[in-house]
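Input for the complex:
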Amino acid sequence: MSTLRIVLGDQLTRGLSSLRDYQPGDTVLMMEVAEEATYVKHHKQKLTLIFSAMRHFAAELRDAGLSVDYVRLGDPANTGSFSGEVRRAIARHRPAQVVVTEPGEWRVREMMQGWGAEIREDTRFFASPAQFAAWAKGRKQLRMEFFYRDMRRASGLLMDGDDPAGGQWNFDHDNRKALPRDVTPPRRLRFAPDAITREVMEMVAARFPDHFGELEPFGWAVTRDEALEALDHFISACLPQFGDYQDAMKQGNGFLYHSIISPYLNIGLITAREVCARAEQAWKQGRAPLNAVEGFIRQILGWREYVRGLYWLKMPAYAGTNALDARRPLPDFYWTGETEMNCLRQAIGETRRDAYAHHIQRLMVTGNFALLAGLEPQAVEEWYLLVYADAFEWVELPNTHGMALFADGGVMASKPYAASGAYINRMSDYCSGCAYDPAEKLGPKACPFNYLYWDFLLRNEKRLSGNPRMAMPYRTLAKMEAGRKREIAAAARQFFEGLSPTKAGA
Ligand code: FAD
Ligand code: DLZ
Ligand code: SF4
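Predicted:
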């Protein structure tokens, strides 16, 4: 009884549930399809990473003796869609059954219903959607911190019997430092493109010239061995300082002490379990302090699992909410990076160049601006989904819709992550190179984040003033003179009038 085993572009893992019981005579189907490449205009490096990693993975499977039917984007008979290619493969192989691992996106899950396939659980995650739903059941608030503690207990990571290692679940108060001037972060490990990657780069340049971002220099790992090398580099060179400088931002260095492994985790070259195990081992061997290792493991065991659980629990309705009734079109500078606001210029410029920005740039620079300016959630979400090499809807959407934009009305975050220029000035060196002054509140030199922050609170007073975690800023606002409020609103209005909406997309 032969089986057709489907492997999607973000399922490049040898232990994948759809590959588990492979028998001689079975066929693995992998397909490059135009629909996936164009449903948003993915960054050129993201396309290269996925297609090159798919081709390398297919070669590794073949080397291991598996039979792989690999459909290339340029194959003349390619129908351009997953469903079309599954149909064609069934006609070619006439399998007794079709097996696939559940996908990362609702959109693809809907398609899969028509494939007549056995859909298996994606066991690469610590928690299944059903386990998350069981945890969420009956809870008024779905706070990550409580989910994370349960995940620590269930996984045994950083546990000392029933207690958290070091006597604390969370060492965040030791983290969140700005980067001192005399500290130079290590260089990011880059991988020179091999012949397979170069061929893919030519294809991407020829077929997708209008997609976002710069194709070169391309330095991403495209195989499991390379991704493991990147992970080892992070653990030895960056993890010890990861906790301290997790929230710091520095002009000219977007990578700092971050791991830069999210694309590899998300496409399956390395797994969350092995990443957490290696980080824990570094702590046990005295190679990294607990605050750093706990902070890092929390991102993966906590946040990454939590956002996936939330996505599958709340979709599809989740994507359609707009709790702050945000309607402003995405400004054109999100595509070009051309703005006088230096923090945005740096974060967007790095995003164009690297298909990467770290968490605080995403949340507190581009995300904070989108929140304060009331940008339309779906336009912002499409931007986040296409600009980063690690972007897949299951992880992008809750982070953008819930955490950055508060468009879910507080399902994910207990209050909006709104901040004035003072936060960016504290955590970065961007402001010293900016046309604006973070200390000025109003006037031509004033940092726009300052008046946009108060204007945001004013615009959303009815919706947010009852939130206990917003009590402090609303108390300050209550004491503000009416004239001052009018000046703030006028400055914001003038700023918004000067924005050009998205012109040509990417
Ligand atoms: P590190 O800082 O080194 O963290 C280690 C790992 O923890 C990451 O590789 C990632 O797998 C995980 N992680 C950290 N924070 C989160 C989080 N909030 N949610 C889920 N996993 C997390 N992450 C994505 O993988 N894909 C996305 O599309 C994505 N979109 C985002 C959009 C917004 C608006 C925001 C605020 C965050 C988004 N994130 C996304 C989360 C986070 O910014 C990235 O995972 C992180 O920047 C990746 O870089 P890194 O590997 O160097 O991470
Ligand atoms: C993102 C992506 C792209 C650009 N192209 C492909 C592809 O051609 N073939 C494929 O199998 N997967 C691709 N992917 C990843 C899929 O979009 C991903 O599997 C779904 O989003 C489900 O998570
Ligand atoms: Fe950004 Fe304001 Fe600082 Fe300029 S002054 S870099 S706009 S926070």
